[in-house]
Design brief:
Blueprint: H1 2-5, H2 9-21, H3 29-43, H4 50-61, H5 74-79
Helix pairs in contact: 2-3, 3-4
């Protein structure tokens, strides 16, 4: 989180992905998309990040279609 707050676009995108997918936290589409947007703006025009930009854009644009990670879904809990 410190790296993301300090402007590292890879860390920003990862924080966004974790929030979008609910990895270790409750899902937060708005918060996650905000972090991914910051990553995109920060990395814009920097060749070091060019290979990552398309994936970040897809994550931003399709946040609601991302899988839930690290949470037990109600139907899974009923089977346990």
């Amino acid at each position: 989180m410190e790296e993301a707050r300090n402007g590292n676009p890879v860390s920003m995108a990862l924080v966004g992905q974790m929030l979008i997918q609910g990895y270790g936290t409750a899902r937060d589409f708005d918060g996650g998309r905000a972090w991914v947007a910051k990553a995109l703006v920060t990395a814009e025009g920097k060749s070091d990040y060019a290979h990552l930009m398309a994936g970040w854009r897809a994550l931003y644009e399709h946040a609601d279609k991302q899988p839930v990670v690290g949470q037990v879904l109600p139907e899974q809990a009923a089977q346990q």
